[in-house]
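Submission sheet (multi-component)
Chains listed below:
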Amino acid sequence: MSAEKLSDTEIRKALNSLQGWELQEGEIRKLYKFKDFKEALSFVNRVAELAEEADHHPDILIRYNKVTLTLSTHSAGGLTVKDFQLAQKIDG
Amino acid sequence: MSAEKLSDTEIRKALNSLQGWELQEGEIRKLYKFKDFKEALSFVNRVAELAEEADHHPDILIRYNKVTLTLSTHSAGGLTVKDFQLAQKIDG
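Outcome: structure written.
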């Protein structure tokens, strides 16, 4: 699987196919809100399974009922297809 | 259970009884390192159980094998005994 850094045009196109993800400092980020901490944690555990399957791991910030996921490909020094594939799986 | 804001002296004393926790911008914070993402996530799930028991929830940041916990009592506008009690339970 390719892990080449995407161009700005490719990033913009890929972002358009997602909902709620924002480009910020070369990473993509999405905030999810849940009823409470318990539901937020269930979501994090589902994300964790997908991350392990993909061998690609978002940064995960949990603040009570809010979860922020941040994706980039450190080894490529930017965003790659792996980030958008995982984002799509998480929201799928 | 009291949720009164602690004084600077009380905070300093309480911090001394903990290991690895740092005071930063009116919150206490600790970074934990694990073998991999899976172990980091197991830790987060244990912390989550303690947080639910205490009805007090740290901010939790997971970056692959690193977990940062941040504690403060929003309702009190600072640090309270609840923060130090939970920190102690997490490390206990």
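Remark: The domain at 8-91 of chain A is CATH 3.30.1360.20 (Gyrase A; domain 2).
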